Amino acid sequence: MYFDERRTHFLEDRLQRRLKEQRLESFYSYYRLLISDKGKEELSRLLEDLTVNETSFFRNKAQLDLFHKYILEDLFRHKQETRQYSLKIWSAGCSTGQEPYTLAMLVADGLGYFQLRNPGVRSASYPKPLIPAPWNVEIRASDINYSVLRAAENGTYNESQMASVDYNYRLRYFDKLGERYAVKKALKELIQFDFHNLKTEYLPQHNDVIFCRNVMMYFDEAEQKRLIEKFARCLNPGGYLFVGHAESLLGMTDKFSMIYRNSGTGYQKVAGLP
Ligand SMILES: C[S@@+](CC[C@H](N)C(=O)[O-])C[C@H]1O[C@@H](n2cnc3c(N)ncnc32)[C@H](O)[C@@H]1O
Fold it and tell me: Ligand 1, residues 45, 94, 95: which to mutate, most atoms within 8 A of Cβ?
């Protein structure tokens, strides 16, 4: 994690909180605790305090429209032509789950509509599955913070978290449980939640699309460049990468080209790369 001058105050404040909780007097004694045998648990508490977990359903509508209307359509068509009916999407830095659940809703809708217009192999099963045969959709959602991952797996949200989910989506993909909304089982089953530190080398491979939004902005430039290179390796040929509104790959890599449509921005791995 990288903290520039604008964020050192935040870092100090969060460290002070941990010191107080541990009844320690100095940053140095806290550092000694972190590197001791007992430090592992504390390090994970500290990480939970240091990560920024802000997120929402349908965040950055223009970008999601680009994904939904153009990119998914292209992917479905290409996959149908090559008879590879599987789609792999990774939400890297998924926080409390709103991003991967949004993607799952968009993919389920998009695929249903695609099948309607391009009937290939028809499935007669009833009730109609969320993902029509022979398609297989896997969405991996990962984060470095265990408590947000638990909330994501739990998949229940209050009214204010649901503000950006319209009536139609609420009806189809959520059950009302008292005051909260719970993601329906069928949608949840499309997603696999996992702990991953994006700084490590071992990351999920063979993705068609990676969403890593509002995560890289907390890394320094060298780390951002390393991550972009790793994402290029984690994507299938011609795969897509989406980063946050305030993040850009401009001048950072020659492995991706930019796609821009109706104010939505995404990146595609350049042709010819394995
Ligand atoms: C601001 S949230 C963004 C959530 C979602 N992607 C969105 O745009 O709404 C950033 C998330 O990245 C996670 N994160 C930060 N550093 C990470 C790392 N090194 N590896 C994996 N996840 C990380 C944080 O825990 C946090 O949940």
Answer: 95
pLDDT at 250: 92
247 lines ligand 1 (CB under 6 A): no
Q: In a 10 Å sphere around its CB, with 0-12 CB exposed, 13-18 middle and 19+ buried, how is residue 8 labelled?
A: exposed
Q: Answer whether 0.70 is exceeded by the pTM.
A: yes
pLDDT tens readout for residues 224-255:
999 999 999 999 999 999 999 999 999 999 99
Cα separation of 152 and 215, whole Å? 17
Closest CA to 143 of 105, 198, 98, 192: 198
- CB-based contacts of 213, cutoff 8 Å, min separation 6: 59, 60, 93, 99, 242, 243, 244, 245, 247
Q: Tell the residue nearest (CA) to atom 3 of ligand 1.
A: 214
